Amino acid sequence: MLRYLWIALALLLTACAPATKPQPETLRLLSYNIHRGQGMDGKFDLERIAAVILAANPDFVALQEVDVGTKRSSGVDQATELARLTKMHVVFGEAMPFQGGQYGDAVLSRKKPIVSGSIALPAAKDREPRVAAFATLKLSRGSFTFVGTHFDHMSDDKDRVWQATTLIEHWPRNSGDDVVLAGDFNAIPQSRPMEIILEHFDDASASNPQMTFYSVKPIKRIDWILYGPEKGWRVLESRVIDEKMASDHLPLLVVLEREGK
Prior knowledge:
alpha+beta, 6-stranded mixed sheet, 5 helices, 12 strands
């Protein structure tokens, strides 16, 4: 009889014990224009770029100005090599053929994506083609898509407005999935392209905006990470990494968190 009383008491205590609070989800996101791996000292050094990425410990990385098999980069597949050096998965999006190879953007992800690919962005015939690469993962609340891109660099906003509109149409904020846009938008705050995007996404660096270009003496804020807080995400950290030599851009790191389900 006493044995059964102990069992009943144990079951009662178990039922009354407070439920374990779910752990929050955290994502570390990095955007980095790597200038085809060529540093401010003129050296092509992917190991130096990889060291910057590894130190940031990101879950996703948006890479711009990536060469794959081009003459100027000695035929190196920079996307694959950076994935190897960082032990991350990679998707490369070709913006255009260049010097016997390809030139474009890449996304690195810590976990293997369930879906990945790229879309071409519109550009005038006399302008450099542009692309957006993406990787999608499953999280506790549906899917999360990380999009990396690089907008037109010319002085007028014509193509950038076109590219911003296309990006928003392809990844609308109210699509039901979590979406983050990251990259070198070649657009400063209050420019028309950023006005278009910020009507749909929030600036993850709004509380700590910092210049990202040139790396040695930053004078412009043109690298962005943009998110949707209505999914429960909040910004834990936003900062520019002070790495002046590896590229002509400074890397931008953002850490997002939301409560566990």
